[in-house]
Amino acid sequence: LSVLKSAARLHQITAKGPSHVTKRAKPRKAEGSTVQRRSMRLQRMQPPEVPQVEAAVQEEEYPQVPAGPLPMAVDGQEESSDTALLGTWLRLSEMNSKDAEKPTCDMKRYQAALSSMLLREDGIRKVVSSRVCSVAIHPSESAVLVAAGDKYGHVGLWDVSCRTEGGAHIFTPHNLSVNCMRFSPSHPAQLLSLSHDSLRCGDVSRAVFDEICRSEDSLSSFDFLEDGACTAIVGLWGGTVAVVDRRTPGTSPELSADIGFKVTRTVDVHPVDKQYFLAAGSVDVRVYDVRWLRRSGNKAVSTLHGHTKSVASAYFSPTSGHRVVTVCADDKLRVYDTSSLSATSALLSTVRHNNNTGRWLTRFRAVWDPKQERCFVVGSMARPRQIEVFQDTGELLHAFCNPECLGSVCSINAFHPTRNVLVGGNSSGRLHVFME
Ligand SMILES: *[C@@H]1O[C@H](CO)[C@@H](O)[C@H](O)[C@H]1NC(C)=O
Ligand SMILES: *[C@@H]1O[C@H](CO)[C@@H](O)[C@H](O)[C@H]1NC(C)=O
Ligand SMILES: *[C@@H]1O[C@H](CO)[C@@H](O)[C@H](O)[C@H]1NC(C)=O
């Protein structure tokens, strides 16, 4: 049965593949920055022997990136500000961050902190060339280094603290949209990025984008199974999930498991009990135990009922994992109590939230503030344009707004893990950074 199922799925995917590519290649006026591939070689850091990438990449088209490791630095021109940017990333990653201030549990104080975070003109920049599909913030506290992934395989890196013209650069490590990115928690010199084609690890200390996993089925998302970022759980658009171990040779997953989903859109690992992960897809949101995963016949540890249309995302709350927030196409945000992880997790609150992002915007994902066990951030269709922060009770705590500087919907947002910094990305590759 499962053979038939996967054959049907394979057929679906191969039938969908090419038309999908040509249909989506919408011509878009290049806004300012073109993809530049100038010298990025770090001093005394020769990139390994890897194939050269085609120089000029048309912004409107999906790039054709070869498989295997890619240099983070191409061509041999002289040193530039890009070198400085990579140097900054490396330096920030080697610094031990001091113990951050304990986050406040007092909602009034938290609201005050949110109100003190402002968007200024120099906090806006086009960092990738098209629609932002993912963002990640480097954990360093001494500078704000943000990464954005876009629809056309690009990864942009921006040192927000750098006030000069430089301070940002675009890489092209993928062929298709970069839907998920995370800095490695214990080695933030590594930025892992996932696109339909592959999961890569951009390692600035070696100036290379390694290939960690590739699959014939398209990848949708990933999360680390431990802080060392050696193992990860990967979600696939075909519904399965895969376990990946970077230490084993080759780029195929260790295990591919059918969890009975039509689509797996996001996966997220429990922050404390790392054997549990959450998968969200068509209307299903379920928690599984990675230790029990088999090729097929997998049973969920807990099910989060109630979604009537497709689910865009589901994430565990950051410190205890006792809450899960989901975004669903039925125009609702839902918060569940997952403190006991019983067979059915109870629904705690529901927020009506227009999610009608339409064709040209990335779907909203509600993500927790890593400093706040009970608060999450989500994009909004409301005018004036804003980014909203809710408490798990469903109460709106704050709307980040600035009619002069924020004139568009930010679908993809992320808070800094320890500082009061929020970054939001819009559908033309612009990042907006709110900070104290
Ligand atoms: C990108 O596409 C090309 C051509 O379709 C393919 O050969 C290559 O393997 C793809 N790259 C990745 C990283 O999947
Ligand atoms: C929510 O948004 C999705 C697209 O993002 C749309 O298909 C759906 O109809 C919306 N929900 C409602 C209730 O309109
Ligand atoms: C993205 O944001 C920038 C700056 O805020 C704005 O100029 C641009 O029009 C926005 N893009 C879209 C598609 O709304």
Automatic annotation (TrEMBL):
GO terms for biological process: DNA damage response; regulation of DNA damage checkpoint. Residues 15-51 are annotated as: Disordered. WD repeats lie at residues 304-346. It comes from the Eukaryota. InterPro entries: WD40/YVTN_repeat-like_dom_sf (IPR015943), WD40_repeat_dom_sf (IPR036322), WD40_rpt (IPR001680), WD_repeat_DNA-damage-binding (IPR050853). Keywords: Repeat, WD repeat. Transmembrane segments: none annotated. One of its GO terms (cellular component) is heterochromatin. GO terms for molecular function: DNA binding; enzyme binding. SUPFAM superfamilies: WD40 repeat-like (SSF50978). It holds the Pfam family WD40. Belongs to the WD repeat DDB2/WDR76 family. Interacts with CUL4A and/or CUL4B. Specifically binds 5-hydroxymethylcytosine (5hmC), suggesting that it acts as a specific reader of 5hmC. This is WD repeat-containing protein 76. It comes from Meleagris gallopavo. The lineage of its organism: Eukaryota, Metazoa, Chordata, Craniata, Vertebrata. The gene is WDR76.
